[in-house]
Amino acid sequence: MQLTDALGGFRSYLEVERRYSVHTRRAYSSDLAALEEFAAQRDIVDTSGLVLEFYRDWLWHLSEQGLSKSTLARRSATVKSFSAWLLRSSHSGGDEAVRLRAPRPEKSLPRVLSAGAMERLLDSAADRAAAGGAADIRDLAILELLYASAIRVSELVGIDVGDLDFERRTVRVLGKGAKERVVPFGQPAAAAVWDYLGRSRPALVERQPMAPSAVFVGARGARLGVRAVYALVAKTLEDVPGSGPEGPHAFRHTAATHLLDGGADLRAVQEMLGHASLGTTQLYTHVTTEKLRRTYAAAHPRA
To answer: For 49, which of 44, 55, 89, 171 could close a Cys bridge (C-beta 3.0–4.6 Å)?
Structure first.
């Protein structure tokens, strides 16, 4: 089978059958484009040329270019998935990449804000919203809901008005793999979102009602995009001490860690975050353990 056709079929499989998000498919496409480029350099145009030694040469070539271990691991996972799909689709006589090995990615702890830093950040956003600007009122609602619910940024921008239940203080979101779940949020977030829906959103939607069902909209009335929320959170975190990611995931990491610090059950946090694997959620227990270790080292006389 022609490699170009096989790659096109795999991309369709990721979208239609696996129902991966646009962001995930974009990452796959980037890896597959690099694979196709390397194959062209080796005059490989057919899937019969995709043997284990070819995949190993590709990863070695990438490592020589200085790619990080995490990138190499991701690209290895991509071709392993592609190779397995070739076999299942009868486009290959075997899974050539099943024995492919890549360096283990470096594991780093996510950025987590302290409860005090989070409170000061939200208080500052509330002060700006008190001035009555439509965008500031919306931004407060976004920040409060991100922290209260620990949802992903893609889930946040996809929320429609009908997904909110203020009586139960829950929001229905569509997560990875098009899996739907219902997530709780607290009173401060409920108040901020309610205020935004009543005072700010109508003014934004009136200008140009391009997304009448979307909760969060931009200045032109269209559904707010992921990049806009990233920019908002990055700007909000500019003056907050600490290193690490400055996007919306910092709020998600912080919320999950604070839940566990407060005694929440790991399984309950897994359900709230929408993690398919408990192992993914356990990363946050490492964060809380690291915090305990630092506290012990600083306070115990025989640490």
So the answer is: 44
| Paired tokens of 235 | 């700007």
What domains does the chain contain, in order, with CATH numbers? 3-88 (1.10.150), 115-297 (1.10.443.10)
286 is catalytic: no
Q: Please say if 249 is a catalytic residue.
A: yes
Q: Which of 40, 33, 13, 14 is nearest to 25 (CA)?
A: 14
Q: What's this model's pTM, rounded to 2 decimal places?
A: 0.65
User: Token pair of 68, please?
Assistant: 């990080």
- pLDDT tens sequence across 213-228: 899 998 888 889 988 9
DSSP character at residue 216: S
- Of the residues 176, 181, 199, 291, only one is catalytic, namely 176
How confident is the model over 156-206, as pLDDT tens digits? 999 999 999 999 999 999 888 778 899 999 999 999 999 999 999 988 887
3-state secondary structure of 160: strand
**DSSP reduced 3-state for 228:** helix
Please tell me the distance from the alpha carbon of residue 87 to that of residue 241, in angstroms, as a whole number.
50
Are 275 and 170 a contacting pair, CB within 8 Å?
no
Instruction: Identify the bridge partners of residue 164 per DSSP, sorted by sequence position.
Output: 171
Q: Which of 75, 80, 249, 258 is catalytic?
A: 249
**Active-site choice (152, 201, 253, 258):** 152
Segment 64-82, tens digit of pLDDT: 888 888 888 899 999 999 9
* Active-site entry in 111, 252, 253, 258: 252
Q: Which amino acid is at 167?
A: E
- Catalytic residue status for 181: no
284 flagged as catalytic: yes
Q: How many CB atoms lie within 10 A of CB 13?
A: 16
> Is 176 assigned a catalytic role?
yes
